[in-house]
Automatic annotation (TrEMBL):
SUPFAM superfamilies: GIY-YIG endonuclease (SSF82771), P-loop containing nucleoside triphosphate hydrolases (SSF52540). It comes from Zhihengliuella alba. Residues 28-103 form the GIY-YIG domain. Transmembrane segments: none annotated. CDD domains: GIY-YIG_COG3410. InterPro entries: GIY-YIG_endonuc, GIY-YIG_endonuc_sf, P-loop_NTPase, SLFN_3-like_DNA/RNA_helicase. This is GIY-YIG domain-containing protein.
Amino acid sequence: MTGFNLEKFRFSPEEVREWGASDPRHRNWPVVYIMNNDSEIYVGESINVEGRMRQHLESDEKRNLQSVRVMLHETFNKSACLDLESFLIRFLAGDGSWQVLNHNAGITDADYYDRHRYQKTFEEIFETLRAEEGIFQRTLPEIINSDLFKLSPFKALNHDQAGAVEEVLEGLFEDLERGESSVSVVHGNPGTGKTVVGIYLLKLLEDIRRHDSGEPLDGDSMFSDFFTPGHPEMLAGLRVGLVVPQQSLRESISRVFALTPGLSRRSVLTPYEVGASDEPFDLLVVDEAHRLNQRANQPSGPLNKKFAEINERLFGADDPEITQLDWIIKQSTHAIFMLDTGQSVRPADLPSGVTRGLLEKAESERRVYPLLSQMRVSAGQNYVEYVRSVLSDSPPNKREEFKGYDLQFFSDLREMRDAIIKRNSEHGLSRLVAGYAWKWRSKSDKSAYDIELDGIQLRWNSTPRDWINSPDAVNEVGSIHTVQGYDLNYAGVIIGRDLRYEIDSGRIVFDRSEYFDVKGRENNSKLNIKYSDEDVLVFIRNIYTVLLTRGMLGTYVYVADLPLRSRLKKYFA
């Protein structure tokens, strides 16, 4: 199925009229079109494209566009055009060369007859737009592997995600209408798309707020009812922010927001920025909410001082029981938390009792929206539970098979490193990651190596920000703090000797002498808490669960402790 036609003309009343009259299909045939100027781009589909162009000429947002490209095909139908429109919007946002003017509510992922054949034509159209028209700057694989694509608000949501967004919106608008405050939780395991839901939601709210009632909207969208009179007015003037506790992920999301009309990188916030704000927020969405901090020794002296100052300013006293979660709730009328109670990885993170309390409170108010479908790992949701079971003291009875998922076990680190480099050359975005079981010598001595095993020498990540996309990442090893919240195609996971297996007791244990994340094991003098090895073991298990669930296409496993290697081999080999 090839042979599409690409027709081009200037976006002006005269040329639209002349082009429309040149072929009956320009007024009565399903097509997809692109309109752009030097910095902005818009993608649409229509059965009467000439009539649609005349509507765009009346639009304040569209009239500054200059060029039109129309894609026609003799076999196009409405379903295929909606699919191609969504395809182009997603990849234009991921390419990052333009500001995409579309709403994200129109992105679809519906199946239809012969869809797989149309996909080949879509790829041909993409390549023509890239190689001959200069619309795309990067190839499809390059875009697919980019954070701009993975974290884009232009996503086709799955059933769980779309249902959660719809229910969140319904509750939010009811609260806004009644003038009531609210606390909601979007809850899910690793890979269920919590971050995507948060980003999508903020873009959707901005689209509703800015919606021009004269612009037609796809009536098939499950969110079309929110683009009706009354809803934009309720959002007018609302102060909104996205809180991201993790530095690396925050930097990546900021770049996405900077390229998205209606969103701003200034609205991507640290918990400290929220706590210190003189002006409260109407709505805060908190990504990776389990990584918010309790009162503990912060990464620097100034932050310890700032924690105390924020407590005093917001609550009148520096009560050590106050957490950053309390800051968020105090500083916002409405708060939506993206939460996984099994992803806390440091003692300074919110304690399990606090996250459980947050979840229970939201459940009592019917404000918990579960995400169940696995969006990252192609092995499915069962794989996440399988990993947790394997790392527990009650492992599965036998190895489970995950059809189509590349799960391998290595007894030689050099072989696993070589395999990851090969996967990276084939698929991109393949990285080595490890538990913090080696000192970070190369942080202060760039010539030093950190991990030395099986005759090879490796270094930790050379940057804490956006390491996955850094130039030499494939030759380095990432820690939990550089990969949590990110997707990889392949993850080569090094399980260090911070995790050991005691043959006599038949238990997996934590070895404090082999764990070098100071913040990952230090006691909490602020709250007079001493963390036992059993306490820290919970965090270590969470860390390796996160690392072992990063790979979308496959996970490779190497274990340093020989007894543990023997125990785990049967589950991963």
